[in-house]
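step=encode ok
step=design start
structure_in=
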C-alpha cells in the first residue's frame, strides 16, 4: 500500500467507525433502549455531587403515619382532618395543601371540613385527574369554583420512580394546576410573585426568577417518556431538602411547636405503607431518606420547596439541550472515541484511554448537573467506547498482522528481540508497510557441503533428507545461539548474517565478526560429532566449506504484494559465497577428520585481530571481481 493510500485509509477508517457506531446508537437511543441507563447515571451521579441537605425554612409536612391511622380507621373522618387543618392554619401557615382525597363526605365532622374548605383562602384541596375517567378522583365539592384545587398526579418513569413534576395538565375540560404549584403560588403571593408567561417565550412559564420550559418526551436522558401536560424536572434526588415534619398526633394534641408553621407552605399527607401512596426513591433521595421509598406527600413537599427556591432565585430549574444538540453531543463523543482510538498503540493504552474517556464523560456530566444542566451520559459513553474499541481494535489488529509480517520477513535475519526493536522503530525501518531498503555493515557466513550432488544421487531420497536435514537443523541452532540469523537456505547450503541495520559502530562490526568466526568453528566441532553418528548408520560423512566476509550490504524486501521476503543484496554476500567455493575441488578440510574448512576475508581478519588463529591462505582473485583479495584460513581453537 502506497503512503498516500495508507494515510487515506488511516483517515477514513475512524470516520467510517464513528458513522457506523452513530448509525447503531441513534436509533437505539430514540427507541428508549438507553433510557434506563441514562436515568441510573442521572440518579447516581446526582447523588454523588449532592451536598448535605439544608433545612428548608419555607416548607413543612404534617405526617399521618400508621400509629395515627390504626386507632382512628381509614379513611380518616372529616372531623379528624378538619382538626389537623385548623391547627395548621392557626399556626400561621401561608398556604396549606391537603394531600388527602375528600371527594366524599366522611362524617362526623363533614360540615366542619366543608366550612373550612369554603372559607379558608389559604387551603388547597387535592384531586386526581388520571388518564381515564374511571380512575379520576374528584375534588371536594366545597372547593368548587374557588380556584383552590390542585391535582396530585405525578409522572412516573418506567422504573416507577418519580423524577418529574407537573405544573399544568388538561382535566378533560380546562387546564388544571398541580397541587404543588397551587400551594407554592399561594405562598409566593405574599411576596408579589405569581405565574406569568415568559416575556421572551410566551409558551414558557415564569415564576419569579425561574423560567420553566415544557419538558419533552426525549429531553435529557429520556427517549420515550410520556410528556403530557406541562412537565419539569424535579431536583430532589440531588437537592433533597431537609423539610421539617411533625406527626399529625402532635398537631391534634397541641404538642407541636407553635411557630413551626408560621409563614410556611404546609403539606398534610399520609406516610403509612398501608396507604400505598409511595414510590421507589431515586438514589439521591434514598441517600438522605435512609429508605428505599418516598411518600407522595414528601414528593409534593419537595416540589413545593423546589418551586419556592427557584422562584426566589436560590437555584435554577434543570435545563436540557435541544434534541438536535443532544444528538450532536453524542456524535461528538463518537468522533472523539474514533480519533483517540486511531492514534493510541497497544492494548493497555486502548484500555486506559477507554476508561479515561468514560470517566471524562461522567465528569463533564457531573459538572453540568451541578450547574443544573442534564447532559445525556449513556449515549456519549457508549458512542465513545464503541468507536474507541472498534478503531483501536482494528488498529491493533492491523498492527498485529503487520508485526507478524515483519517477524516473518525478518525471522531469518534478526532474532525476535531485534524484530521487536525494529517494530518499535518501524517509521525508520518501514515504508508503506514494507521494509525500507537500508545500507548497513555486517558479517556474512556462507556454508556448503562438499560433494553433495554425487552423494545425494547414491543415497535413498528419504536418507538424503535425513542426512542433510539433520545437518541444517544443527547448523541453524548454532547460528541462532550466537546472535545470527539464517537469511536463506539453498539445498545443502545456507547464508547467515551476523549484524543488522541497528548495528552501526566499529565495536558492533568486530563483535559480529567474532560471532561468525566462533559459529563457523562450532560448526566444525558439531559436524565431527555428527560424522561419527552418520558412519554408524552407514551414511557418508559431512564435509563443510565455510566462507566469511564483512562489508556493506543492502537489506530490503523483494517479491510481489502476494509474496515477498526479506533479503540482503550486495557484494558482501557474493564475496562470502566465493570464499566458500574457493579451490573447492582440491580443498584441504583439515581437522581431526577433515570435516570443515573456514576461509575469511582480509576485512574480517582485521576485525578478528591478533587473538584469532589465522593462517594466510592466498591472495586470491575471485570470480566477478578485479584484483586480488587476501584470504585467511581460520583454525581451531578460534582464540589464542
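sequence_out=
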Amino acid at each position: 500500500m502506497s503512503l498516500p493510500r495508507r494515510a487515506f485509509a488511516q483517515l477514513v477508517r475512524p470516520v467510517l467507525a464513528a458513522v457506523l457506531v452513530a448509525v447503531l446508537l441513534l436509533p437505539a437511543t430514540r427507541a428508549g433502549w438507553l433510557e434506563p441507563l441514562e436515568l441510573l447515571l442521572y440518579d447516581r451521579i446526582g447523588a454523588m455531587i449532592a451536598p448535605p441537605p439544608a433545612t428548608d425554612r419555607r416548607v413543612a409536612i404534617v405526617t399521618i403515619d400508621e400509629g395515627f391511622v390504626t386507632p382512628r380507621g381509614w379513611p380518616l373522618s372529616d372531623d379528624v382532618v378538619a382538626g389537623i387543618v385548623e391547627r395548621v392554619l392557626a399556626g400561621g401557615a401561608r398556604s396549606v395543601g391537603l394531600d388527602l382525597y375528600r371527594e366524599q363526605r366522611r362524617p362526623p365532622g363533614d360540615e366542619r371540613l366543608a366550612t373550612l374548605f369554603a372559607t379558608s383562602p389559604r387551603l388547597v384541596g387535592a384531586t386526581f385527574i388520571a388518564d381515564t375517567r374511571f380512575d379520576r378522583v374528584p375534588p371536594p365539592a366545597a372547593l368548587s369554583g374557588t380556584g383552590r384545587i390542585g391535582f396530585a398526579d405525578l409522572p412516573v418513569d418506567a422504573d416507577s420512580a418519580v423524577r418529574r413534576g407537573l405544573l399544568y395538565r388538561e382535566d378533560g375540560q380546562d387546564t388544571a394546576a398541580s397541587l404543588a404549584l397551587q400551594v407554592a403560588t399561594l405562598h409566593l403571593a405574599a411576596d408579589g410573585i405569581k405565574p406569568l408567561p415568559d416575556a421572551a417565550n410566551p409558551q414558557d412559564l415564569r415564576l419569579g426568577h425561574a423560567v420553566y420550559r415544557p419538558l419533552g418526551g426525549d429531553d435529557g436522558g429520556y427517549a420515550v417518556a410520556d410528556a403530557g401536560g406541562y412537565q419539569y424536572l424535579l431536583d430532589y434526588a440531588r437537592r433533597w431538602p431537609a423539610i421539617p415534619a411533625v406527626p399529625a398526633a402532635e398537631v391534634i394534641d397541641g404538642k407541636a411547636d407553635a411557630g413551626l408553621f408560621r409563614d410556611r407552605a404546609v403539606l398534610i399527607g399520609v406516610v403509612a405503607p398501608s396507604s400505598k401512596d409511595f414510590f421507589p426513591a431515586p438514589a439521591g433521595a434514598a441517600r438522605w431518606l435512609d429508605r428505599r421509598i418516598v411518600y407522595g406527600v414528601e414528593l409534593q413537599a419537595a416540589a413545593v420547596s423546589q418551586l419556592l427556591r427557584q422562584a426566589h432565585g436560590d437555584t435554577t430549574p434543570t435545563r436540557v439541550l435541544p434534541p438536535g444538540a443532544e444528538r450532536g453531543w453524542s456524535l461528538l463523543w463518537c468522533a472523539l472515541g474514533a480519533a483517540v482510538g486511531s492514534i493510541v498503540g497497544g492494548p493497555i493504552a486502548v484500555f486506559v484511554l477507554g476508561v479515561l474517556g468514560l470517566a471524562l464523560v461522567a465528569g463533564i456530566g457531573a459538572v453540568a448537573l451541578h450547574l443544573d444542566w442534564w447532559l445525556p451520559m449513556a449515549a456519549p459513553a457508549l458512542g465513545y467506547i464503541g468507536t474507541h474499541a472498534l478503531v483501536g481494535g482494528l488498529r491493533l489488529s492491523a498492527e498485529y498482522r503487520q508485526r507478524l509480517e515483519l517477524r516473518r520477513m525478518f525471522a531469518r535475519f534478526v532474532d525476535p528481540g531485534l524484530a521487536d526493536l525494529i517494530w518499535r522503530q518501524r517509521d525508520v525501518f518501514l515504508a508503506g508497510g514494507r521494509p525500507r531498503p537500508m545500507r548497513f555493515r555486517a558479517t556474512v557466513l556462507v556454508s556448503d557441503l562438499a560433494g553433495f550432488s554425487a552423494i545425494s544421487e547414491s543415497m535413498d531420497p528419504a536418507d538424503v533428507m535425513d542426512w542433510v536435514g539433520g545437518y541444517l537443523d544443527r547448523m541453524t541452532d548454532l547460528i541462532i545461539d550466537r546472535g545470527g540469523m539464517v537469511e536463506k537456505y539453498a539445498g545443502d547450503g545456507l547464508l547467515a548474517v551476523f549484524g543488522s541495520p541497528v548495528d552501526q559502530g566499529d565495536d558492533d562490526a568486530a563483535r559480529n565478526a567474532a560471532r561468525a568466526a566462533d559459529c563457523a568453528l562450532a560448526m566444525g566441532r558439531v559436524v565431527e560429532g555428527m560424522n561419527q553418528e552418520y558412519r554408524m548408520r552407514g551414511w557418508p560423512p559431512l564435509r563443510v566449506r565455510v566462507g566469511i566476509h564483512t562489508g556493506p550490504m543492502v537489506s530490503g524486501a523483494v517479491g510481489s504484494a502476494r509474496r515477498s521476503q526479506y533479503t540482503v543484496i550486495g557484494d558482501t554476500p557474493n564475496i562470502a559465497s566465493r570464499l566458500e567455493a574457493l579451490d573447492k575441488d582440491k580443498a584441504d578440510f583439515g581437522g581431526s577428520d577433515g570435516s570443515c574448512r573456514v576461509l575469511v576475508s582480509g576485512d574480517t581478519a582485521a576485525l578478528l585481530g591478533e587473538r584469532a588463529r589465522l593462517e594466510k591462505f592466498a591472495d586470491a582473485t575471485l570470480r566477478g571481481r578485479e584484483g586480488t583479495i587476501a584470504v585467511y584460513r581460520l583454525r581451531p581453537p578460534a582464540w589464542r
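step=design ok
step=annotate ok -> The first strand starts at residue 59 and ends at 64.
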